[in-house]
Amino acid sequence: MEKSKDALPQNTLVMKYGGTSVGTIAAMQSAVQIICETKAERENLVVVTSAISGATNLLIQSATDAAEGNGLTSEKAARELTLRHHEMIDKLIQDPNKWLQLKMDINRLLSDFTNLCQAIKILGELSPRALDTVSSLGERLAVRILAAAVESAGFPAKAVEASQIIITDDCFQNAAPDMKLTTARCEKVLAPLLNEGIVPIVTGFMGATPDGVITTLGRGGSDYSASILAVGLRATEVWIWTDVTGVMSADPRIIPQAKTIPYLSYKEVSEMAFYGAKVLHPKSVKPCVDNQIIMRICNTFYPKKAGTLLVDNSRTTDIGKIKAVTSANGYKLITVSGAGMDNGMNVSARIFAGFVEDGVNVSMVIESSSEQSLCFPVAIKDVNRVIKMLNQVLEKEISRKDIEEIQISDTVDIITVICPGLKTNPIVIAQVLNQIDSKGIRIKALSYGASDVSLNLIVASENTKESLKCIHELISQ
After folding, report:
1. Quick check: 1 pLDDT over 50?
2. Are 156 and 45 in contact (CB under 8 A)?
3. In which band, very low, low, confident or very high, does the pLDDT at 2 lie, cut at 50, 70 and 90?
4. Among candidates 295, 312, 329, 297, which has minimal Cα distance to 416?
5. What is the CATH code for 13-243?
6. What does the angle CA 252 – CA 463 – CA 282 come to, to the nearest 5 degrees?
7. What residues contact residue 164 under an 8 Å CB cut-off, 6+ apart?
């Protein structure tokens, strides 16, 4: 029986390219070569691309400035983005008709961008919906060039905007996919292309509501896009191409001795992503875990080097050994203390409800054993509204002096030590604390126990690099 053109093919591979992997002419050429070589070996291949490096920041800044009455930023951004994308077209596209069409498409999209920024300037307001439309433009530009470059290299490819495929709710800037609708779109839009031997090149980061309004999945969401599409296509593997050779034991810009970790469990890499590692979007792991999809992190510029393979939590390796240390930066530690804090769960519950209502994410909470003190790191941008919220929800306790004070620290960072089997190997915690103490670094707070693979320390920002370096020394021991 002849296979339906809409039937999902078997053994599909989804490859995602980050901004640095398509951010220059050389990077784009490397990505094209890898895509072509992989397509020659793998029948069914889908590619997801980010915007070129720096583009999304330019777009967001332009829209933000426009809302404040400054239209010059968007004009400058449009000129810069036009130049960068046109240079890529000149180097990567040989066919004069495609060359002209691409440049016209780029010019049209950037003209739409400047018009939208002008509208934002006139209104004096930047809505989340408008910001999603602006910030997703970088992917819409890059996808056209990458698809055309793959075709110029001899393999049929088609640019596809994810707004046709990934259907989400209307939570702009942090939308959640509707997997039932998204799977149906994968079958309708992507399956026919794959069955015709075409490589779909899909925009990362973005989706759309059922009514077609553009949404985004959160900053860095192209990884998440790849996982969503992999689930919708029932793919077997996801390869994340970036500018480092897999997941490193530390940030190589801070610690040159950092090395690639060959295997990481899903739980370990999720903790690393949540607490500062830039290799993966925190949400990208769970869809692959839940659907038993193999995930691999590779280096676009050294494609032959082994990267990092993510394995099921049951296959965790190196129990009781530190694998990595990372940091999440730019917080202040807020401490609420007083005798009124020991009033059961009432005070804590109101504080947590306030976080939810204000949409503030708190990565960890530490409570004293006497229940008279509670502290939590808050991103610097959220500090003022958190303090306002605390003064509101704790108004009675503050007026009665049951809450003695709300303290705000200087800038702090969260150091996360990744070590599987921490609960059965508490000696590792002692080693880390002794190492920190040997450098005269004061730990402001510590969290352990919620996860068996991570230990979190909060230190003053000026001590972060030294903390990372001295803890990383334990990995080599």
Report:
1. no
2. no
3. very low
4. 329
5. 3.40.1160.10
6. 50
7. 185, 189, 208
Would you say 205 and 225 are in contact if contact means Cβ atoms under 8 Å apart?
Answer: yes
For 95, the token pair is: 């066919």
Report the alpha-carbon angle 380-274-226, nearest 5.
120
Residues 83-117 pLDDT 10s: 999 999 999 999 999 999 999 999 999 999 999 99
Say which CATH class 324-476 falls into.
alpha beta
Residues with Cβ within 8 Å of 387's Cβ and at least 6 positions away in sequence, in order, are: 334, 406, 408
Residues 6+ apart with CB under 8 A from 31: 17, 21, 22, 146, 241, 300
Q: Burial of 4 by CB count in 10 Å (0-12 exposed, 13-18 middle, 19+ buried)?
A: exposed
β-sheet bridge partners, residue 227: none
pLDDT at residue 477, rounded to an integer: 59
Q: List phi, psi (to 5°) of 370.
A: -85, -5
Taking CA atoms, 203 is separated from 51, 84, 222, 328, 433, in Å, by 8, 18, 8, 27, 44
Predicted model pTM: 0.84
Cα-based distances in Å from 340 to 123, 242, 267, 350, 353? 46, 50, 37, 13, 18
Q: Where are the domains of the chain?
A: 13-243, 324-476
By C-alpha distance, which of 127, 140, 130, 172 is closest to 55? 140
Contact status, residue 393 vs residue 314, Cβ threshold 8 Å: no
